[in-house]
Design a protein that fits this description.
195 residues, mainly alpha, 11 helices, 65% helix, 0% strand
């Protein structure tokens, strides 16, 4: 994951830090830390320590704190530690936008660690969640789920499925040819290779 992808600013979910004012202050300080990630290019441990310090302000095993620490490890080149923390955050009941981001980021880290098969499983399950069970922020990440699933599918030798997903995610964003591209994306799954 890139630093922009792994950072978070979702004050509304899993607030266990006290009052609304305290939660908002914590989220603002967290966002400020993430905004300064590039300043830590030569000191990734320093950035992880900064996020760990903020996480320590929350209750032990708080899923939001675990997620933010996972993202810090992810963004500073420590995917093994990130995977462990993402799983703890998800197992701990992470909800909302951060939950969906954790699934995407966990799947991406697993893919980068040579486990695209597990990445496909996670993202396929995430993709199957009915839209009426997602809030607007979670729904906004639907194309991201498809994009990271496409990467994992390609790594498992399922290139036509990967291309279909990627093109299907792209189709709604085009100023023209939306219907045609969406049709061709679906048709990739039905057309023999080389056609």
């Amino acid at each position: 994951m890139s630093s922009d992808d792994a950072s978070s600013n979702d004050a509304s979910s899993n607030d266990a830090s006290g009052s609304t004012h305290d939660a908002r202050d914590w989220e603002q300080r967290l966002a400020a830390a993430w905004n300064e990630l590039d300043a830590y290019d030569s000191d990734p441990a320093g950035f992880r320590a900064r996020i760990a310090g903020l996480a320590a302000e929350r209750p032990a095993d708080d899923p939001v704190a675990l997620f933010e620490q996972a993202a810090a490890h992810d963004s500073t080149g420590e995917p093994e530690q990130a995977v462990r923390l993402y799983r703890r955050a998800l197992d701990g009941g992470l909800t909302g936008l951060r939950r969906r981001r954790a699934v995407i980021q966990l799947a991406s880290s697993l893919r980068n660690l040579g486990r695209p098969d597990v990445s496909v499983e996670l993202l396929t399950e995430e993709r199957a969640i009915p839209a009426d069970r997602l809030d607007a922020d979670e729904t906004a990440l639907t194309a991201a789920v498809d994009a990271f699933l496409a990467l994992a599918l390609a790594d498992t030798g399922r290139e036509r499925e990967a291309a279909s997903l990627a093109l299907g995610a792209l189709a709604p964003l085009l100023p023209r040819y939306n219907r045609s591209l969406a049709f061709y994306a679906r048709d990739l799954l039905n057309t023999p290779k080389g056609s």
